[in-house]
Amino acid sequence: MAVIKPIKPLRFTDKKNIDTCVCPPYDIISDKEREEIVGRNSHNIVILEKPEGENKYENAAKLLKEWVAEGVLKRDDSEGIFVYQEKFSVAGKDYVFDGLVCLAKLYEFAEKVVLPHEETLSKAKQDRLNLLTATHCNFSSVYSLYVDEEKKVEAIIENAKKLEAECSFTDSEDVTHTLWKITDKNDLDALVSAFADKQLFIADGHHRYETSLNYRRICKENGVEGQDTDYILMTLVDMDNKGLVIMPTHRVITEKGLDLEALKEKCKEEFEITEMDDVSKAEEVLASLSDVHAYALYSGGNGFTLFKRKEDAVIEGHSDAYCGLDVSVLHTLILEKGFGIDKENMANQKSLIYTRSIDEAVSLVKSGDASCAFILNSTKVQQIKAVSLAGDKMPQKSTYFYPKLITGLVINCLDK
Q: Which of 42, 205, 319, 389 would disulfide-bridge 142, Cβ 3.0–4.6 Å?
């Protein structure tokens, strides 16, 4: 089963200003946000993780070498496994979750040790492959879940948090990030042993994981040596951790000229359709219907249309776990069957865009930039496990774990 091991990472030497050296995941950073981040520190990891300009990947590799030579980044003297904690609030409620940052052995998905839950896009994987090929580094971590029924891992994490923290800071979203390093050999051995019977479920970072599989294959085919291509940087979080928060990702339909009344008529056989008068209550209404497939269709004005599935869905060619997902039913029975928006268009975002903000979804419709939006409930953690074990994959953007893991605290350099 899962094989993990300690890491001797590259890390920023400026611990006092570490908050200006790190950044959110590259794929949620806009061009404007990137400019603002670089303005705070010309050595921010975003310059390497999200390079720009001509020959951007080669330039990132060159800059990485310069930063190491200048002492901006330095490899740790000792290896270890890190405890990474995020403290944050959502809707007035406080949350905390702890994860382990380490190296995890790569497995093909067919081996059922590391399991995906979501489809990926080839464009993003090519970008990550180009960067990995040039820099030989995992700048950001794959986020995975595990089951720890006996709480052996939890006990070691709690002990590690009694040590002096390597760093701690609060970011612009009021999320506090803290890092501890485990170096005790007995604890390290115990962690490696604890994961030997576990499966890992990818929560976020499917593109990075698949890219590393591809890169390993390419290196072996071409006889490339001197790199540890069998392992990837990974953050492991207990699936039962009470600090896990998954936010819904709403669908905003940008295709114009859609007949919404015809859609409602098509869906009447399979959905109860009710007109509601206040879109500001949509989230509250959906939360009360979390045990059924329910969606709020917003097409302008003050109200919205509630779609509530009458019975369990059956989606041909997929598992019961997949059919139990709100997002699967929405994509297959409403967007595809009702609107005629096929899977390819959805994957390439030709007819729709995604947002986790209801306000943004509503604003896009009101401004005329979109014809309508579907607001939905979030996917549950246990649904991720069920879909993964069934060998199925959710549609893209089915989950949004909040907050995202910070990029740049721990960097895995594949060069030996």
A: 205
Write the pLDDT tens digit of every residue in 51-62: 999 999 999 999
Instruction: Give the contacts of 135 (CB within 8 A, at least 6 positions apart).
Output: 48, 57, 60, 61, 64
Residues whose CB is less than 8 angstroms from the CB of residue 222 and which lie 6 or more positions away in sequence, other chains included: none
* Chain centroid to CA 274: 34
The whole-angstrom distance between residue 232's C-alpha and the CA centroid of its chain comes to 16
Q: Under 8 Å CB-to-CB from 282, ≥6 apart: which residues?
A: 276, 296, 298, 304, 358, 375
Predicted TM-score of the model (pTM) = 0.92
Structure tokens given for 289: 């219907």
Q: For 370-412, how does the pLDDT look when each residue is reduced to its tens digit (9 = 90+)? A: 999 999 999 999 999 999 999 999 988 889 999 999 999 999 9
- Of 202, 64, 38, 41, the closest CA to residue 132 belongs to 64
- Is residue 384 a contact partner of residue 201, using CB atoms and an 8 Å limit? yes
